[in-house]
Amino acid sequence: VILSFLIRAQLESIRHFVGIKVDRQLITVLVERWRKETHCFNFREGECTITLKDVAILTHLPIDSKAVCVSDHPPEDRDGLTGWQHFIHSVLGVKVPIKGSVDATDRLPPLRKHQVSITWLTKYFRDHHNPAKDGVPLTEESPELEKERYARVYLIGMIGGVFFSEKSSNLISYGWLRILLGSWDEMGELSWASACLANIYHHLCNASLKAVREVGGAIFVVQFWAWEHLPWIAPLQCPDGN
């Protein structure tokens, strides 16, 4: 139903990375061998690292495009809504509660100072299209606007919660919303593989610090890279593929 929009954004491959189980012990071992000064893993046999070619092959994300630039400069407040509230409402048709509103708790409002809750957005749209909750199912016959909105929320969940996630995969920064709620064709002109690699480096460098206990970003790419380049640690596969 939403594949055509993902194709326009050159992000159709991300749908294959839902629910991937990450080997945390493997990631911990790799982080301990990561050197932020060189952006390389330091093994007994020598240094090696994840390259842009690796990311492109493993994720099928585009390379030869424009750089991904994230800016969270707020839009102007309009119609009694904050700038980001109005921006989200104008594209997705939903008013995200902020602190002090009737639909939000003061402790954890869905719309915060610099971020919005991915969990709240995805749940809202799933419920909206869930027949069990009096929602309208999303089908090929659904209005084009509804399919487009659902595709954008799907991308918010995948980009903010999987590929470019922070330590908590529940939140996405406003800067990403400018891209994911913008033009589909402009999204398709971005070098997503380059951004993914830079983000992986950033999170590996952060995780290599003693005070940090969690690692964000597309860690599953690091895992796939390790399986590819260090085959003796890859999981054994039975003849039947299990």
Automatic annotation (TrEMBL):
InterPro entries xrefs: AminoTfrase-like_pln_mobile (IPR019557), MAIN-like (IPR044824)
User: Where's the Aminotransferase-like plant mobile domain?
Assistant: 19-235
What GO biological process, any one, is recorded here?
A: meristem maintenance
| Matching Pfam families | PMD
Name this protein carries in UniProt: Aminotransferase-like plant mobile domain-containing protein
Q: Which organism is it from?
A: Linum tenue
